[in-house]
Amino acid sequence: MEHEKDEPIEEPTMDNSEDVDVDEFDDEETSRDLVVPGEILTEDTKNYLPGRGTIFNKDRSKIISLNIGLKQVKRNYINVIPLRGFYTPRPGDKVIALITDKNPVKYICDINAKDRGILKPKNTVPRGKPRGYRGGAPDRQDNSTGKYDIGDILIVKVLSADRLNKPELTTVGKYLGKRRDGLVITIDTPKIPRIIGRSGSMIKMLKNLTKSNIFVTQNGRIWLKGEDLAHERLLIDAIRKIEKEAHTVGLTDRMSEYIENEKKIRGMN
Question: Residue 31 has what pLDDT?
Fold first, then answer.
């Protein structure tokens, strides 16, 4: 059976950019003060409640941090946005998966989470699509794990995820499926919103200045393809710099200046 071709990725944040928590590092209510586990964030427990990454102390007189991160006050909740962390799967997320194993009934996928993801053959074929040749018997390979191989890189969507079952994935949908070109890099999952930027400002700038296509996914993995190796290397260097400086202000303008200077230094057009 001949494999289907990659579907081109023309827009870097198409479909999934709004699903990423883009307000975390860019939110005006996120302070730039670093807090550590056990640090008291407030004693005003009448007006504030613990949110993400925070809890009450034993007598509920204080809200303390559970993580290393940035303090954020949102409405009446106090959160701590972590600087590091694993990806937590949520239904609807688009993520980059690596097939690490397979058996006759399923693929086992590394999705940069605590648990491996499961991709069943039935979730690799659009429903209602004829599975056989016209006038012939059904194509049995559609019901087996012959479509993909161990080591393949896939862009998938999370169908279901909870604490009791491993995340179930699908490759049916726009921009989903196997990638045969480009590069994939991984950054700390909480930094993904910073790569996108407010209203997609950062990723649009990266795409334009490095002449590259970029697809950012919620599990900390980024697919990229530049017009040549030099632009891909510049883009990777820029992403690593954003990851390192994600907690700082004025990052988009600073990154634009950095890329323009690097292009001159590297003799790039």
Answer: 53
